Every structure is written in structure tokens, then in C-alpha cells.
Amino acid sequence: SLPMSAAAAASPDAPACILYTISFSHFCDMARWALELRGVRYNEYQYAPGLHRLAGIKKMRQATGKGDSHTTPLVSDASGRKILANESWEVFQLTSEGGARSVSVDLKTPIPKDVKTMLNDKVARATRAIAYFHLTKEGKGAEALGRMIAGGAKLGWASSTALSLGFVRRYIIGRLAKHFGGEDDAKKSRTELNETLEVLAGKLKEGGIFFADEERKIPTMAAVATAALMYPLVWPPEIQTVVYGKENYIPFDSLPSKLKEEIEFYRKTEIGKMTLDMYKNHRLNIPPPQ
User: Fold this and answer.
1) Which end of the chain is flanked by fewer CB atoms within 10 Å, N or C?
2) How far apart are CA 181 and CA 174, in angstroms?
3) Which helix (H) or strand (E) holds 269?
4) Taking the mean position of all CA atoms in its chain, how far away is CA 164?
5) Closest CA to 115 of 41, 12, 26, 223
């Protein structure tokens, strides 16, 4: 279970940890969702992609022997000095421990190694590459991405101030375009994603991995991870409340037409349908920490 600082232990309502995130990230919602399911109180420090390099995450990792990257998510104790989880899969490991909790998700069933590999190496990479390919284009894509990176409900004052400047948003989008915006990579990612989703759909049909019951009423953490990592190409309505604190903050019609076509396609896949169901029925109705 998650260890707490002395201050958090002294006050039941005090956050047990800090979650460092960026405002448009499937891995970050995967970690956020897992903490909430376990009933962990946390403070979220949210940054725009790129600006998270100013958060001291790399220095924290270096000081604790956890590598030297800036990547998010990362979970520290409430003091911000000890790393509890270095990435989203470690958050899942933390939240699989501890006592029982009355939620509609099976927290105990482990994610099979082959499924985790497919989700991490294929699904997560592909959904991000395809989404950013469309969102870094000039016009509707850049406008929507600008709102996504600048509208996080938990953005700090410094990030919000910087992102109010158009040239800062344009600089970040330009950097993202260089890193993720290749058409060839998007095409390759689409092929890999479609092949992987067929395999995962077969496992969904077999049963026992994504749901703990035959009626598909009790999802496992494999379903949570899959739904979170699919969200950039399924765009469930609930994600806007989770990340931006507002319903319909970025209307579907405001997205670039090619991205909307991708989303409409993936919503019709078996894994896409499961993603929509997971966000609708299991994302916003999690009981608060006791």
C-alpha cells in the first residue's frame, strides 16, 4: 500500500502523495484512475507537455536513483522528496496492494504479461502517435491541441500564465509536431494498432482478462489500463471532466475532420466499445476516499 508522510498520517484528510502529470496524456489518466480506485488522497501537479521539464522531475529521479528522465506520470510522497511510483505501471502495482475497497472494479486480478506488453508497446504508442499527427496540423488541429494543453484543471499558476501566451503554445505544438507528427509513423502505428486490437478483442471474447464475471459488469485493472490508453482515439466524453474539469470543454466538432474519422472508426471496434463503457460506467462514479 502507499506509505504516507508523517503529516498525512496525522490527518486522515491530508493527501498521501503527489501525482505529477501533463494535461494531455493517456498514461497520466491511467495513473490517476488507479489512485482514485484505491481511494488514495493525492495532490495533482499538472503541467503542459514540455513545461513539465521545469517541474524538477528529472532532478527528483536523479536524487533517488530512479533514472534521469522528465516523463510523467510520477508519484512522490506528500513531501515531494521520495518517489513512490516511477511510471503508470508502478502506480498499478502500488494500488493492487492494500485492503479491500468497495468499488465496481476488480483491483486484484493481475494484468497478464503479454497483455501489458501489447498495451505498453503497441496501443499506448500508436494512439499517441496517431492523435498527435492530427492535432499538430495547422488549423483545427493546432487550435484543439492548444486548448488541450492549456486547459488542464490542475495546471499551476506558472504554467497557466505561460500558456496564456500564444507564442508559448505555438512553440510547444511545434516541438510536439517534430516528435510525433510524422505521416509515415502514423500510418505504421495505425497498422500495428489495428492488428493489436484484433488480438485484444479475441482475449475479450475469451473472458477472464478484462472482466471478472461473464456478464461483463466487473472490469479488471486490465480493462482500466486499456481504456485509459485508448482514450486519445476514442475520446470518451467523461475524459473532459476528468482532465479539464468541464463537460464538453473541447467539443467533438472542434476536432480536425481526419481525427474525428479516426475516433469514429475506433469507437466501433470491440476495444473501443469497451473503452466508452469503462469511462461512462466506471470513471466518474468512484467513491471518495474514506
Assistant:
1) C
2) 9
3) none
4) 24
5) 223
Q: What are phi and psi of 42, to 5 degrees?
A: -145, 155
Q: Per the structure block, which three cell numbers stand in for 131? A: 492523435
Rounded to whole angstroms, the Cα distance separating 44 from 280 reads 23
Q: List the grid coordinates of 52.
A: 513539465
pLDDT, tens digit, for every residue of 30-67?
A: 999 999 998 889 999 988 887 777 667 777 787 777 77
Burial environment of residue 65 by CB neighbours within 10 A (0 to 12, 13 to 18, 19 or more): exposed
Q: Is 255 exposed, middle or buried (0-12, 13-18, 19+ CB in 10 A)?
A: buried
| Strand ranges across the sheet with 74-77 | 42-47, 17-22, 74-77, 83-85
Q: Are 263 and 236 in contact (CB under 8 A)?
A: no
CA distance 247 to 26: 18
Q: Is the peptide bond before 73 cis (omega within 30 degrees of 0)?
A: yes
* Cβ count near 147 (within 10 Å): 16
Return the C-alpha cell found at 160. Answer: 497557466
The string of pLDDT tens digits covering residues 109-127 is 899 999 999 999 999 999 9
Q: Which of these, 171, 183, 184, lies nearest to 142 by C-alpha position?
A: 171
Rounded CA gap, 17 and 137, in Å? 37
Q: Where in the chain does DSSP place strands (E)?
A: 17-22, 42-47, 74-77, 83-85
Contacts of residue 223, Cβ cutoff 8 Å, sequence gap at least 6: 105, 210, 211, 274, 278
How far apart, in whole angstroms, are the C-alpha atoms of residue 126 and residue 130? Answer: 6
**One-letter amino acid identity for 209?**
I
pLDDT score for 6: 42
Grid cell digits, residue 5:
508522510
Sequence-separated (6 or more) residues with CB below 8 Å from residue 225: 30, 92, 111, 116, 119
